[in-house]
C-alpha cells in the first residue's frame, strides 16, 4: 500500500462523508484511519457506516481524555501497523482539499516530510478574518524565529511523512497538543536532520461545524518554543539528532 491518511475528528459528522468521498474518488492506493474522540455528534457512527462498504476506511474510537495530539499518536501507531510507504495528516473539516494529495505523493519519495504550506510564495487562505490571518502569520514567524525553523508554515496540519521517517520520531516524548503538537513534530523532524519540503496548498476555512482549537491550545503553542529550547539545552541528545 502506498499511503495511509490519518484524520483526527471531533464533531465532524457533517464533514467526514464528503471528505472521504473526495479522497477515494482520487482513485489512489491508500487507506484512511479516522481517529474519533467519542464525538457527541456521533461522527464515529457515520464513519462506521461508510466502513461497511469500504474496507479501506479504518476507525479508532478513543474513549480516553479528548486530545488532538494523543489522537494523532494513536492514529500514527495504527497507520504504521498497516505498513504503508507514506503517512498523511489531514483535518476532517474540508480545509485541506484532497486534490493536493497527488502533489504530496509526487514530492515525498525524495523527502522525509512534506508540509502543505499556506504561506509559501504568497498567502492562500479562503475565508479567514484578517484577525485570524494575522494571528496565524504571527504564530508562524514567532516559532520560526525562536526555534530557528526554516519553514514558512509550521502550524499546517496537512502533511505527508515517509513512514520510515515517522518511525524515527520518538512519539512517547511528544507531549503537546493542538497547534503545539504540529510545531513540535516539525521541530523534531528538523532536529533529526530530515529532508523537509514545503509545497503550496490552498486552505479553505471550515463551512460546517465548530473550531476546536481553543485559546488554551494557542497559549500552549506560545510557550512551546521555549519549552523545546530548554529541553534541548538540558538534554543534549536532542541536538545530536537522536530526538531525545
Ligand atoms: N480526535 C480529535 N480530533 C480533534 C480534536 N480537536 C480537533 N480535532 C480535529 O482536528 C482537526 C483540526 O481541528 P479544527 O477545529 O478544524 O482546528 P482549526 O482548523 O485550527 O480550526 P478552524 O479553522 O476553526 O476549523 C479537525 O479534523 C478536528 O475535528 C480532539 O481533541 N480530538
Ligand atoms: Mg479546521
Structural account:
By secondary structure, this protein is α/β, with parallel strands linked by helices. It has one domain (3-240): Alpha-Beta Complex (Spore Coat Polysaccharide Biosynthesis Protein SpsA, Chain A). It is built from eight helices and nine strands. Strands 3-2-1-4-7-5-8 form a seven-stranded mixed beta sheet, sandwiched between helices. Helix 1 (13-24) packs parallel to helix 2, helix 5 runs parallel beside helix 8 (215-234) and helix 7 (178-191) packs parallel to helix 8. The protein is globular, with a radius of gyration of 17 Å. The structure holds guanosine-5'-triphosphate (GTP) and magnesium ion. Magnesium ion (MG) binds at residues 91, 93, 95, 206.
Concise summary:
Helices cover 41% and strands 17% of the residues. The chain is an alpha/beta fold and 244 residues long. The chain is globular and about 50 Å long.
The CATH class is identified as Alpha Beta
* Lateral arrangement of strands in the main beta sheet: 3-2-1-4-7-5-8
Described by strand count, sense and barrel closure, the largest sheet is:
7 strands, mixed
Count of DSSP strands: 9
How far from one another are the termini? 31 Å
Helix and strand run = EHEHEHEHEEHEHHEEH
Radius of gyration: 17 Å
Structural class, from helix and strand content? Answer: alpha/beta
- Estimate percent helicity: 40-55%
- Compute the number of structural domains: 1
Shape: globular
Task: Tell me which ligands are bound.
Answer: guanosine-5'-triphosphate, magnesium ion
| Unreliable residue stretches | none
Number of helices: 8
Q: Please, what is the CATH homologous superfamily? A: Spore Coat Polysaccharide Biosynthesis Protein SpsA, Chain A
